[in-house]
Amino acid sequence: MKQRLFFQFLLLFGFAISANAQEFLSVEDAVKIALENNYEIKIASNDLKIDQQNVSLANAGILPTLNAVVTENSSILDTKQTQQDGSIRDLDGAKNMNLSYGVALNWTIFDGFRMFARYDQLKELEKLGDAEMKLTIFTKVSDVISTYYDLVQQKQQLQALDTAIVISDLRVTTADNRYKIGKAAKLEVLNAQVDINTDTTNLLRQKELYANTKILLNQLLAREVNTPFDVEGEFKIDESLLLPELIALAEKQNPQLQAQIITKRITELQLKQVKSSRLPIITISSGYNFTSSESSLGFARQSNGQGLTYGFNASMPIFNGGLQNRNEKIAKIQVENSNILVLQQTQLLYSQLASAYQTYLTNLQLTKLEAKNEEIARENLDITLAKYKIGTIAPLEFREAQLNYVNAKVRNSNAQYQAKVSEINLKELAGNLPLASF
User: Fold this and answer.
1) CB of 246 within 8 A of CB of 426?
2) What is the per-residue pLDDT across 143-202, written as a single tens digit (0 to 9) for each?
3) Coil, strand or helix: which one is 4?
């Protein structure tokens, strides 16, 4: 027993040295880094900035346009003119030039309220971009947290496999001592050596998986994939989640549902724009122009002018072959479809929450059951080890007790991980991942 405790002390000491050699990364730090570095989050953030820039009175067509205008027309013609008195004037290569320049203002002051509906639509598109960005953030943060706690699970399994090797090494030593004093056959020693080699193989495979999962987390954090770090050793599971509260939060915060509701508003505003085509369009124009003209023939050889120009234009559709009715019917169908999609997304959300919550409750129960199983397996191993040392139990029974203990530790770790994943899924569906605290 003292020898086993000595090996366990060395094991824990080795883990402490390994942990101190690497930077400790908390789950909060991992989320912070992801929010700052993750490429998909950056792209979603830039897309939202584009939507924000699009919300402007000018983009909606509400503001006037002011342009600088220059027009110049020249010609060289062989010209023949018959004057009023019957005389004829004939000139080859007659040059003519007309030049106009100035500023022109055009302003649509009424278009059936289309411009205002368009402005409201641009604001809704900004909200849609915000909802899509939140969806991207929640998805990536959920991936980061799940991967982080997958590492916690694997770290615990590494410790379990290390413990298995410590016990197997003790078994090899005990079997060898028994063989030397003639109390055991060589076969017992060989079996013990085969088992410790098997345990070593399992440990190496687990270390490989642990290293690859670290690479995956570094990738999600958008940093150098071989950056060394250490993670927490235990799970922090929120066991206080209640389904009615999650549903109430999801109805207000779930990004997918909110995006669908915003899309419905956008289609309603699109219908409003289509209907506006039935009303007249009124535009006004004004400007200040300078004009100059030269002519080789004619009553005026040169003319110049400057001054204000203004006017207005009004038009109203009367008949366009039924296209207006067609466009309105299509827009109404699109509004109806968006209503259906909102109902569908709401029902899907309720279904996902109910299913995920049931999984969450089951996993919480399993964590308690597997924790108890690990305690029983630990006690059984201690008893079996004591009997093995005095030779009152067969090596096969001892190996079975050893494997039962290792498997119980692995199942307990996996149960805690599954419970944590269930918690994360529920909070993601409710739009309640605690980003503000990260």
Assistant:
1) yes
2) 999 999 999 999 999 999 998 899 889 888 888 887 888 777 888 889 889 989 999 999
3) helix
- Specify the long-range contacts of residues 223-231, CB closer than 8 Å, at least 24 apart: 223/33, 223/37, 228/21, 228/22, 228/23, 229/22, 229/23, 229/24, 229/25, 230/18, 230/19, 230/22, 230/23, 230/24, 230/25, 231/24, 231/25, 231/148, 231/151, 231/152, 231/155
Tell me whether residue 131 is in a domain. Answer: yes
**C-alpha triplet 339, 126, 145: angle, nearest 5°:** 90
| Three-class SS state of 63 | coil
- Residue pair 328/336 in contact by the 8 Å Cβ criterion: no
What residue type is 339 in one-letter code?
Answer: N
Helix or strand run (H / E) with residue 140? helix 114-180
How many helices (H) and strands (E) the chain has is answered by 9, 4
Domain count, the chain: 1
Structure confidence at residue 297 as a pLDDT band (50, 70, 90): low
Q: Which of 419, 343, 408 is nearest to 371 (CA)?
A: 408
Adjacent-strand bridge partners of 105 = 66, 286
Q: Say if 47 falls within a structural domain.
A: no
- What's at 140, amino acid-wise? K
Here the CATH number for the domain that contains residue 156 is 1.20.1600.10
**Structural domain span for residue 420:** 2-37+112-280+322-437
How far, in Å, CA of 96 to CA of 295, rounded?
A: 4
DSSP string, 326-377: HHHHHHHHHHHHHHHHHHHHHHHHHHHHHHHHHHHHHHHHHHHHHHHHHHHH
The overall average pLDDT reported for the chain is: 88
CB atoms within 10 A of CB 86: 6
Cα 170 to Cα 386: distance, rounded to the nearest angstrom: 12
How far apart (Å, rounded) are the C-alpha atoms in residues 7 and 168?
11
**What single letter denotes the amino acid at residue 121?**
Q
User: In this structure, is residue 224 part of a structural domain?
Assistant: yes
The answer to whether position 160 is within a domain reads: yes
User: Who has greater pLDDT, 300 or 267?
Assistant: 267
CB 154 within 8 A of CB 209: yes
Cα dihedral angle (183, 186, 192, 196), rounded to 10 degrees? 140
Q: How many CB atoms lie within 10 A of CB 19?
A: 14
Question: The pTM is what?
Answer: 0.84
